[in-house]
Amino acid sequence: MVHRFVPRVVGALLVCLAVFVAGCSSGGGDRDVPDWARGMATVRDDRLPAEARETLRLIDHGGPFPYPKDGTVFGNYERELPERKRGYYHEYTVRTPGERDRGARRIVTGSHDEVYYTDDHYASFKAVLRQ
Fold first, then answer.
1. Pairing between strand 126-129 and 115-118?
2. Per-residue pLDDT of the chain (131 residues; tens, 9 = 90+)
3. Is 56 inside any structural domain?
4. Which residues are catalytic?
5. How far is Cα 3 from Cα 32, in angstroms, rounded to an integer?
């Protein structure tokens, strides 16, 4: 009597496993993440600090930028971003309230519309997901 239930139990377990695996692979996650940001920490642009959102607005409008170094080539010497030829990345200062100098926060853009945010002076980056 037990033997005739084994195929049904095994079949039911396989169906459950297939549903579980399909749910894990299609449930969002990386679905809305562009290829250039895959494998990185991400942040939606509306979750950035207000000062970073203002810097993005200035970038979108071509300035004017408050700091002379804004828009200069970012060398990626820390190698935290994908390796690209010199001139691919440009950096912009994100104002930090209370700081007398440029502070540690930056937005770095790539030539193919990539946007990265760092709040620790290039030690780590988050890919910014624009809406």
1. antiparallel
2. 555 555 554 444 444 444 343 333 333 456 689 999 999 999 999 999 999 999 999 999 999 999 999 999 999 999 999 999 999 999 999 999 998 889 999 999 999 999 999 999 999 999 999 98
3. yes
4. 91, 121
5. 46
Q: Which domain holds residue 96?
A: 40-127
Length of the chain: 131
Q: Which of 30, 26, 108 is nearest to 74 (CA)?
A: 108
Number of structural domains found in the chain: 1
Distance CA 39, CA 125 (A): 12
22 lies in a domain?
no
CB 36 within 8 A of CB 84: no
Residue 26 inside a domain? The answer is: no
HEC readout, 20-85: HHHHHHHCCHHHHCCHHHCCCCEEEHHHCCHHHHHHHHHHHHCCCCCCCCCCEECCCCCCCCCCCC
The CATH number of residue 90's host domain is: 3.10.450.30
Task: Say if 10 falls within a structural domain.
Answer: no
Q: Locate 75 and state its tokens.
A: 């060398």
